[in-house]
């Protein structure tokens, strides 16, 4: 049976998708956490990310390992080895590939090799807040097996970055409002390891986070958005990079649109419009910046290559986030 052949008409409510399927509940006492990082040419940020991870401590979890699935051709692997040498308290496994394999392959590799009870996934170009892991782990309660972070843009004042900040604010309000195709985001999330091991992401999938959300719904399990689980990222500086992210998202959602329809998670137009107006009132300049970027979208759809591939165009201006490393 095809993954999305069956239609579930279970009620959707704020933050959760309710169901009655039995699954293993996690204890809230002490959990072993695996940190998973898909990496592709992250030499400008990988040390910031690893440093922010190992500094996070709690009586409720212990980081038992960090798994990095790396396709880099720059000095990322050398910096990881340097960090591993200087940080003997945390086990770091770097699974390096000489060719670019794609994000789907990276997630699958991490899911297959995990030793912890919970996996916390971070993109290679983010800086988690000091309480991020704690918040993501604590969100996995009851029937919730997948928890989504609150990704916050930091730095830069270009037209593209203002547009990205507006979109990020809109996404936050949408995620608070209800479950939709925009809930899951790969910048930061947590998932029960036992559930992740049941999931394999096809190599051609672009929107791997949305695919993961759909697989969790197929298993009739619940998803939560935690607004306190903050992950910082640098928004794109150039309009080309912003539009490449927009076009990639559109292609990724189009690729598995049957999932969106069958699980009834398409965001209603009135909700999207209401939240857009809400953000406009607080950030009119951001709204104008979005319109400015969208005006050039047809050109970038023609000019930018690889946006319909799981090995997409990399937004280079989002990689250098050294100016937010001390957040």
In short:
By secondary structure, this protein is α/β, with parallel strands linked by helices.
List the SSEs and their pairings.
Blueprint lengths: L11 E2 L2 E2 L13 E9 L6 H9 L6 E10 L5 H11 L5 E5 L6 H11 L4 E5 L3 E3 L3 H7 L5 E10 L5 H19 L10 E5 H4 L11 H11 L3 E12 L5 H17 L1 H6 L6 H14 L1 H12 L1 H7 L24
Parallel strand pairs: 3-4, 3-6, 4-5, 8-10
Antiparallel strand pairs: 1-2, 6-9, 7-10, 8-9
Kindly describe this structure.
With 327 residues, the chain is α/β, with parallel strands linked by helices. It has one domain: Spore Coat Polysaccharide Biosynthesis Protein SpsA, Chain A, CATH 3.90.550. Helix content is 39%, strand content 19%. It is built from twelve helices and ten strands. The chain has helices spanning 46-54, 76-86, 103-113, 132-138, 159-177, 193-196, 208-218, 239-255, 257-262, 269-282, 284-295, 297-303, and strands at 12-13, 16-17, 31-39, 61-70, 92-96, 118-122, 126-128, 144-153, 188-192, 222-233. The strands form two sheets. The chain has an eight-stranded mixed beta sheet with strand order 5-4-3-6-9-8-10-7, with helices on both faces. The protein has a two-stranded antiparallel ribbon with strand order 1-2. Helix 1 (46-54) links the parallel strand 3 and strand 4. It is globular, with a radius of gyration of 19 Å. The model is unreliable at 1-22 (pLDDT under 50).
Q: Return the string of H and E elements.
A: EEEHEHEHEEHEHEHHEHHHHH
Number of strands: 10
Task: Report the β-strand fraction as a percent range.
Answer: 15-25%
The residue fraction in helices comes out at 25-40%
Can you tell me the CATH topology?
Spore Coat Polysaccharide Biosynthesis Protein SpsA, Chain A
- By CATH, the superfamily comes out as Spore Coat Polysaccharide Biosynthesis Protein SpsA, Chain A
Q: Strand order across the biggest sheet?
A: 5-4-3-6-9-8-10-7
Which structural class should the secondary elements be placed in?
Answer: alpha/beta
| Overall 3D form | globular
Distance between the termini: 47 Å
Return Rg in Å.
19 Å
Mean pLDDT: 87
**CATH architecture verdict:** Alpha-Beta Complex
CATH class category label: Alpha Beta
Number of domains: 1
Summed up, the helix count is 12
Tell me about the largest β-sheet.
Answer: 8 strands, mixed
- Give unreliable regions as ranges: 1-22
């Amino acid at each position: 049976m095809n993954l999305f052949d069956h239609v579930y008409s279970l009620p959707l409510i704020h933050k959760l998708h309710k169901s009655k399927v039995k699954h293993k509940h996690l204890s809230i006492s002490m959990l072993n956490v695996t940190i998973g990082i898909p990496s592709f040419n992250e030499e400008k940020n990988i040390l910031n990310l690893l440093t922010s991870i190992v500094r996070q401590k709690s009586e409720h979890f212990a980081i038992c390992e960090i798994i990095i699935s790396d396709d880099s051709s720059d000095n990322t692997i050398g910096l990881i080895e340097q960090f591993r040498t200087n940080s003997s308290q945390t086990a770091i496994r770097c699974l390096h590939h000489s060719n670019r394999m794609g994000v789907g392959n990276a997630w699958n590799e991490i899911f297959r090799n995990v030793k912890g009870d919970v996996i916390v996934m971070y993109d290679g170009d983010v800086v988690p807040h000091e309480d991020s892991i704690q918040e993501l782990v604590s969100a996995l309660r009851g029937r919730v097996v997948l928890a989504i972070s609150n990704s916050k843009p930091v730095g830069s004042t270009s037209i593209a970055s203002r547009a990205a900040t507006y979109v990020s604010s809109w996404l936050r309000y949408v995620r608070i409002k209800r479950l939709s195709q925009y809930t899951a985001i790969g910048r930061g999330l947590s998932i029960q390891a036992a559930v992740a091991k049941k999931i394999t992401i096809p190599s051609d999938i672009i929107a791997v986070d949305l695919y993961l959300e759909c697989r969790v719904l197929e298993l009739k399990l619940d998803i939560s958005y935690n607004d306190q689980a903050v992950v910082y990222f640098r928004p794109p500086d150039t309009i080309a990079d912003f539009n490449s992210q927009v076009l990639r998202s559109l292609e990724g959602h189009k690729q598995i649109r049957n999932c969106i329809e069958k699980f009834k998670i398409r965001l209603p137009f009135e909700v999207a419009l209401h939240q857009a107006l809400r953000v406009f009132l607080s950030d009119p300049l951001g709204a104008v910046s979005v319109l400015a970027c969208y005006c050039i979208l047809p050109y970038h759809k023609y000019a930018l290559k690889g946006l319909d591939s799981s090995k997409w165009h990399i937004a280079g201006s989002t990689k250098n986030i050294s100016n937010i490393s001390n957040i």
